[in-house]
Fold these 3 entries.
Entry 1:
Amino acid sequence: MRFWATGITVVTAEFESVQHGMTVSSFTSVSLEPPQVLISLQQNTRTHYLISRSRAFGVNILGEDQREISNRFAGRIPDEENRFDQLEPFTINSRIPFIPGGLAYLECKVVTTLGSGTHTIFIGEVTGVRDVDGDHQPLIYFNREYYSLSTK
């Protein structure tokens, strides 16, 4: 799958005052009416546990200048540590933390889950949105490296 170019997101969650997040490239739109998105998470992760309990998640769509954020939430900081340290997260409508500096943010409530192999597919209905003004470009991942889109 490393030859599939994809945008990068950080999926975040909060349950009983515990916040966590992880870098996720398995993200896509499912429906426009109602607005729904899909994420796929490995079942033995802390983020999976929090989403399973809270039935809600956030999607942070990363910009090209957020490689360090992608790496931080991809496990360079262990699950037990605070990956949000010094990031000043914000919220939209709930307690789900979002990371400043991204392209867009989606707050979602889980409407469907489907287990498959080692992963769970969560389909979330979008309940809150925030985007940023400006001419930002997405962070792209391909063949184990980060890329930026060229705007010519």
Entry 2:
Amino acid sequence: MSDVKLGVNLDHIATLRQARMISNPDPIEAARVALTSGADMIVMHIRGDRRHMQEEDLERMRKEVRCFIHLEMAANDEMRNIALKHKPDSVCIVPEKPGELTTEGGLNLKDKSMVKEVEKTIKTLSDKGIEVSLFLDPNADDIRTGYKIGADTVELCTKAYSESWGKKNQAKELERLQLASYLVKELNMNLHSGHGLDYYNVRPVAQIEGMECLNIGFSIISRAVFVGLKTAVSQMKEIIG
């Protein structure tokens, strides 16, 4: 068995449901399939614009499915209140910009107002026993700031790696992730990665020393259209093993 856990993000099950504003496909049913197919935890992102997951989805997931729930959210009062109400097992604080198709990169911890909101979120949720992760680019300064303000975990953004073309560029981005990983572990923080990882580029990231969890959504749901969710999840789990 692999030491690297797989978090399956089900946002795009909800995207498909929202296209018709009906009850199917149901993220709760999808979670059950994913968990019986090798997923170690369920990831869901409640966005400010509610384009896919709804607060009701988190409420039902918490009540109806026995699993580890990892909530992705922005650092603001609305999302802090949702997290406090439904108590996911862990939270990843991510940046959000109006109109973006997906998260475009890690948190900007050079922005003092952002750091203030993130630090407030970490304290608020940590006091209630919720583990807090920060979605960060593989940048030493951001990782050190995350450590100083109390984060438990760093989820390294693999966007640059996953979008790099050619072996040379990909190797360069992989090295950045590896160097960042050493710092995360040196600071005794948990190490996760995610964003743009698929069946062709995931293995080198899974093999980074100290990697504990990969959070993957779009590529799994895309493959599920052709092979089914059960097969798509089990194939990904096998690859990261």
Entry 3:
Amino acid sequence: MEEVITLLREGNHNAYEHLFETLYEPLCRYAYSILRDGAETEDAVQRIFCKLWDQRADLTINSSINSYLYRMVHNDCLNKIQQQNSHKEHNLNYIASIPDSNDSVSDYIGSNELQATIDRALETLPPQCKRVFEMSRKEQLSYSEIAQQLGISTNTVENHIAKALKLLRVELKDFLTLWILFQFLK
């Protein structure tokens, strides 16, 4: 293994690829045991391999390369958990800072900022998709009425609505997070 470390320090890409192919899956399993989130697990392991390559010239490893990488993954996962906890605490503090009234959260959710976010998101939609969504939500037409007026199939209407809702879910995730957190604080 000392040879692998030397090859890495020299910038040998084959040694790096061999390490990646050999240890990627076991490191992912280890990271998953800590994080319990598939996407975060892969991100953590990928960050470690990127960091290993970026810092290869200055590698000082007193144990095996395997132990070194497992320790890096362990530390990265703990940092991620700490970061997530910090975000949760920040969100709770933010909710606590909202003025106290019976309708304060609904006032916030119904605010101009939310409407502006929705409007910006809808502007990114293709024109036909935006029109279908507005006919459904603002004019409250049924899918079949929209299809008939626009001369398209009901399935096309459904696809446009699904696309618009998917975009809105992504754009409004911060508002939804606040709303969910508020529900738990009640």
